[in-house]
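#onboarding

Welcome to the new folks! Below is a worked example of what a typical request in this channel looks like: someone posts a single protein sequence, and someone else replies with the predicted structure as tokens. Don't worry about understanding the tokens yet, we'll cover that in week two.

Example request:
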Amino acid sequence: MPEVRQWDGQSYDRISGPMQALGQVVLDRLVLTGDETVLDAGCGSGRITETLIERLPRGRVIAVDMSESMVAAARARLGPGADIRRGDLLGLELDESVDAILSTATFHWIADHEKLFRRLHAALRPGGRLSAQCGGEGNITKLRGRAAAVIERDPYAEHFSDWRAPWNYANAADTEARLRAAGFATAECWLTDAPTEPEHPREFLSTIVLGPHVQHLPERLREPFMDEVMAELGEPVTVDYVRLNIDAVA
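Example response:
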């Protein structure tokens, strides 16, 4: 089984501007009247959740994330009045159905999309909407290829001999089929290129993009590894994001 990655919620909140910008596009697709109950599935440090709350002056947001560190960062950002819960989306259970689900930069960290979509469908009222975006087929292929050149060197290579990638970059056609099999009445999925030049490239890569690689190494090798990755990439650092967009109706 792929190992479960760990997150640094404070670091993520500080440098995740590019993820917020991508997430804002997804939120803009979700038409809201202001009185709905909406689930933020994989809320991270709460940057998009904050905007979602602003759009629901008469409604309610339930924010869920599996990472304890992310939940702590979201609570620090959003305050004690926000409904933020730590939980696994594959075991999602809510006391009431929600009108919509928003999710950004989360689903590619979940291996079992079939089970995920069944849980999300069960959480929605009939006619409820799912608007989501995550890494899709081809995501960061070029950047990971450059990083692979470093991984194959000593002293790093021995630590990756049994490593399995913890991401699931699905394509649009398979995702539509999985959504319909999970019970969604309609599903539209598509891939978009979203190349990004992060403001703080080293921290962005070590925290987000290459976080699983860094965490797989012993502490003494993490900074040297990033030194060599940054030298391999040169400047400017471009993250070749490919995003899988999802719009579905229960």
